Amino acid sequence: MSEPPPTRKLTIIAKDPGLRLGPDGPMAFVEVSVPAEILAKGPTGYRIKVVDYNATERRTYLDEQEYQTRDGTLVDPFAPLPGETREDPAYQRRLLADPNFHAQNAYAIAMRTLGAFERALGRRVSWSSGGHQLHIAPHAFAQANAFYSEPDRALMFGYFFRRDGQPVFTCLSHDIVAHETAHALLDGLRSRFTEPSGPDQAAFHEGFADIVALLSIFSLKPVVAAAIGEDGRFADTDRTIRLVSVSKLTAEAIRESILLGVAREVGEALETGQRGALRRSVGLTPEAVHLLQGEVEEHARGEILVAAMMNAFVALWSDRIAQLGRFAGDSYNLDAVVEEGAKLAGHLLNMAIRALDYCPPTDLDFGQYLSALLTADRELVPEDEWGYRAAIRTMFERYGIHPQGAACDAEGCWQRYPADGALTYARSNYQAMTRSRDELFRFLWENRETLDLSARAYSEVISIDPASRIGPDGIALHETVCQYVQRADLFGAEFKAVLGAERPEGMRSSDRYTAYGGGVLILDQYGRVKYHIANRLEDAERQLSRAQYMVDAGQIGAPAAPDRLRFAVLHQQRMGA
User: Fold this and answer.
1) How does pLDDT run across 87-142, given as a tens digit for each residue?
2) The whole model's pTM is what?
3) What is the C-alpha to C-alpha distance for residues 208 and 353, in angstroms, rounded to an integer?
4) CA-based diameter of the chain, in Å?
5) What count of other Cβ atoms lies within 10 Å of the Cβ of residue 476?
6) Which residues 6+ apart lie within 8 Å of 568 measured at CB?
7) Which of 342, 320, 321, 311 has its CA nearest to residue 244?
8) Which of 358, 52, 401, 349 minimizes the C-alpha distance to 219?
């Protein structure tokens, strides 16, 4: 058997079944590259296991595909047959009706998303369950919903029927599959982000997952070109240039395109075409956000983060398009436009993912994520030559999201830990600190006063992740990302004694409350602390604000939703089902 290549090709539906190649054209089926492996039935690989059980119909769809030949040659079982093309209506109908193709579509998109995270972070990324494989159920139930379930170690995709009786499968939407996979990956990187907290942390999971879904589609350049549309051709002496009209590339036109809407087919089926997408957060204006500040429900609040990021993308892409040369005064080179969009989206996606390493592990707010975004990019790209950081900070601030005050420098990045920070390294072994949680905890404990840790709380090092990233200049950045958390379980009557603030209005003395704190230590290649990004447990103002929000939101003194239903309920509300 021959050695497999590093990647393999698998067919998927690009973006969404709602994307057409032309006004009345076919759907966009494409081949994408995913990490190569010898797949078992399902398909099942070393990180993804598709289990195609339909709980509504109580049936299993058996995988009948072969993903490699007997000699080990990797094959795409849904590649067009001889004489077919991906645009043939018969070919597309055959794949849409085949549950095995649905399974491959979900597997391939999930693996692409995992690959994007691991490239950005410079290391392997684990699922939060501790297991090696994430389960995917492409036809989990007959319901307009899709969600990530940590207890089941699974992504659950539902299906429903239009008014005309035609089925709509959420597992066929690139946006939805990438969104749910991002939930699972984020939960593995920051497991405490699903704990009850302020409105921003509750919203961050949703907003971040949409950002990943929207930006990742731009790597499929032929699909982006088809979505924009060709308006003519210019014949040069040695090549033919596809042209696109200026009118299609205004900031408003880009915002209205299918590329920046989430799950068009599902949105149209649920809303009878009124919205054209399940969500179009990029259309949320700063003025609308300012009018709603302080009143935004947590599920809708995630769209503020998406609006800020995607409008920064639109502004940057518009600027880069304007620098391209025009043909006949009113057209651009379509391929050059797409290339600029792909490079920009790829850089912003890497920024968005890398920023997670620079976020505190508990009680995140949007301002802290902005500081993490700016810091993550500056560490790898010191000179902001293309103005990414300036554009992101400007747009986020328009949406009311600001860097975190004294914890940040003039550029909005986190302050570096001072070289003379009085930390004790003498009794710590750097090599052991990058591998052993016990050794790192010893370092934290010996420096608890300097690092402002609570000596009374339960403390735990939850991860140590060495990372190696390559900047655009080819220089490698080596860091070790270390997370620790602290928690104190108390009753309302103990709130002031433990946390230093009067208990919030509405909290009873018998109510149980868990206070969280924690931080991230970023160690440089020599084992010295470069950043300490933390939310202290004994921060009276923060704990009071968090507890008051939880009381007002009914999260204290009321039974919580079971863990397995948390994302299910959240997504059902967002889909409007």
Assistant:
1) 999 999 999 999 999 999 999 999 999 999 999 999 999 998 778 999 999 999 99
2) 0.93
3) 9
4) 82
5) 11
6) 145, 147, 149, 156
7) 321
8) 349
